[in-house]
Design goal:
globular, 8-stranded antiparallel β-sheet, 6 helices, Arylamine N-acetyltransferase fold, acetyltransferase activity, Arylamine_N-AcTrfase, 5-stranded antiparallel β-sheet, plasmid, 13 strands
Length: 241
């Protein structure tokens, strides 16, 4: 892929690229459910996501989107995060991958978290509000230089994950990528998940249910067969095997 000479690496174009990605490429773990190994090398990811019109999870989506931004002239780095799981505990280092983009100031961009902030989020702490909620970034740990990605909830701000701003290489995520695919306590094993943003909400297939969210209203229907699930994947997400 060659850079588009019509795209200037600025905040406006970054917002448009992020929005386009979120509306076009699903977050999905179908290869994990099918026992198809996910290997973190960019040619394989390009083939899967661009040529085969598939999605992926954080390591796949953010690394390939980060590569695109780099090709377009953005100052971008891979960063590692630790997701807050049920019970309030955070996962291990490299539990999650996101992107740090340096423009007039630094922004976190994340196209690999499913329901999340749809615009670049300033590292400065300014909040952003959209269909997926209100988010902000705050310092979390001065000793280890962690920041917290927080979501506004009824009970106040709730952290979704913690991260550092240190630059990482794609290979740094290999061990956790394999763990997420194979470990019994991984949130991605033993589950079928595919979700994509829409202009008015989100469509999510989770195991045997389909949830369509429109302007905050959810409607869930049960999926009765594999044939029906395959049809939904094709019709709703453009995925076929």
């Amino acid at each position: 892929m060659s850079p588009d000479s019509n795209i200037t690496p600025n905040l406006e174009h970054l917002r448009k690229l992020q929005r386009s990605h979120l509306l076009s490429v699903p977050f999905e773990t179908l290869d994990i459910a099918r026992d198809e190994p996910i290997v973190l090398d960019r040619p394989s990811l390009y083939t899967k996501i661009v040529e085969r019109k598939r999605g992926g999870f954080c390591y796949e989506l953010n690394s390939l989107f980060g590569w695109l931004l780099d090709q377009l002239g953005y100052d971008v780095r891979l960063i590692e995060g630790r997701v807050r799981h049920e019970g309030g505990n955070f996962g291990p280092p490299f539990d999650h991958m996101a992107l740090l983009i340096n423009l007039d100031r630094s922004y976190v961009v994340d196209v690999g978290y499913g329901r999340f902030c749809r615009v670049p989020l300033p590292l400065s702490g300014d909040s952003r509000t959209g269909l997926e909620g209100t988010y902000e970034i705050v310092p979390a740990d001065d000793t280890n230089h962690y920041f917290a990605m927080e979501l506004a909830a009824d009970e106040g701000w709730k952290p979704t994950y913690r991260f550092t701003t240190a630059a990482r290489e794609l290979s740094d995520f290999n061990e956790m990528c394999e763990y997420q695919q194979t470990a019994q306590d991984s949130p991605f094993t033993g589950r079928t998940l595919c979700t994509i943003a829409t202009t008015t909400g989100r469509i999510t297939l989770s195991n045997d249910s389909l949830t369509v969210t429109e302007k905050g209203h959810e409607q869930t229907t049960q999926i009765e067969s594999k044939r029906e699930r395959d049809r939904i994947l094709n019709d709703r997400f453009g995925i076929s095997f």
